[in-house]
């Protein structure tokens, strides 16, 4: 059987040159410059282990007790010292914030999140409170908020489920159950329908294969042919075939599938999805493809769409900055500048104001 070795190099594209190895195995080694052969970036399957990607790294010589006291004093009596809150919470890591919350409770007998909610308001409150949740609880909260009340914000559900690993999704399901006493899959089923429901539930199952160095090129070609037969080759679209392959194959495997599909169809998988599907199903499929190819570019687009034009999608702006600030935000910013033609920090400066802007800028860091 023939295999392809798909490798990665941090930050830059990976260039490969093919070598024939023994026993029917295809291997690749790095070329000095990117080639047109199987190019990958650091996609979602390895995005959150890169120290250089984190603008928020926490405080050295950290001590939760004085930070908790600073926050208590900032909220005590008449008025609130917003700058003191910003200085503490935007310059600490998430783990450090959890320790501060424990110390705050131990020293003053109060819940820090509830205290912050009572003192702050608007988008500034929304941002600061978001910082206080652990990553999995924050994702669970965003999913819950996207489904509660009238209407469903499908874009939020798509963003979270398409961009998290299967291990992370398992933790999100657990956090959702603990926080809201409800089953995430059942809630998604009750709020969505049709093929969108199927693709979201499929992502939620966490059945995607783990990314490996070796890709079965014969299977990748078979999958590419199946996708071609399910869309471009027929009148109408076999959506289930698209959903099955996109949701269950590993990211490294999908990269090879996309390459083979381009050869077969004479167009990218993205272009085919756009021509074969519509609405939220199209959005979900494209999100999976984008996160597989380059998760930084995906989040850069999300941020750009949140900031461009009249008005600001503050929910998306807050969610992406908070969830990626200790992951890969520093690596998202160059992609943003390429898409927008200006820096992320400059657009935040233009679109926001007051304490909200100050806190966002602290999270974003300099470009």
From TrEMBL:
Calcium/phospholipid-binding protein which promotes membrane fusion and is involved in exocytosis. This protein regulates phospholipase A2 activity. It seems to bind from two to four calcium ions with high affinity. It comes from Serinus canaria. It is found in: Basolateral cell membrane; Cell projection, Cilium; Nucleus. This is Annexin. The lineage of its organism: Eukaryota, Metazoa, Chordata, Craniata, Vertebrata. Belongs to the annexin family. GO terms for biological process: animal organ development; calcium ion homeostasis; cell differentiation; endosomal transport; endosome organization; tissue development. A pair of annexin repeats may form one binding site for calcium and phospholipid. It holds the Pfam family Annexin. PROSITE patterns: ANNEXIN_1, ANNEXIN_2. Gene3D superfamilies: Annexin. One of its GO terms (molecular function) is calcium ion binding. Keywords: Annexin, Calcium, Calcium/phospholipid-binding, Cell projection, Cilium, Metal-binding, Nucleus, Phospholipase A2 inhibitor, Repeat. Ca(2+) binds at residues 309, 311, 351. GO terms for cellular component: basolateral plasma membrane; calcium channel complex; cilium; cytoplasm; nucleus; vesicle membrane. The gene is ANXA8L1. Its main location: membrane.
